[in-house]
Amino acid sequence: MLVWFTLYIKQVRTLTSSDWVATFEIYAQSKLDELRNEQQQLKLIPLENDHKRLTELKESNIYIIEDKEIMGFGAICHNEIRALFVHPNFRGNGIG
């Protein structure tokens, strides 16, 4: 049996100031997906408006995963993973 799959060549680098817009978009799309099975109706606070969460993220080392476009991002603070979000279009490809 022959199985075909897409293998993405990924680059991991540190976040730059020009990455914030894409990071906010990936967070919004991924977080809503994460909340879809909750029992109660939850409203997403955009990352750029969530002072506490954004402050924690900025205290971290933030890494961008990309291949021609930003596919996801992660954040580490000391020994703690603070964030790991993959754009829905790139899930299931070993990015996370």
From TrEMBL:
<dbReference type="InterPro" id="IPR000182">
    <property type="entry name" value="GNAT_dom"/>
</dbReference>
<feature type="domain" description="N-acetyltransferase">
    <location>
        <begin position="10"/>
        <end position="96"/>
    </location>
</feature>
<dbReference type="Pfam" id="PF00583">
    <property type="entry name" value="Acetyltransf_1"/>
</dbReference>
<dbReference type="InterPro" id="IPR016181">
    <property type="entry name" value="Acyl_CoA_acyltransferase"/>
</dbReference>
<dbReference type="GO" id="GO:0016747">
    <property type="term" value="F:acyltransferase activity, transferring groups other than amino-acyl groups"/>
</dbReference>
<protein>
    <recommendedName>
        <fullName>N-acetyltransferase domain-containing protein</fullName>
    </recommendedName>
</protein>
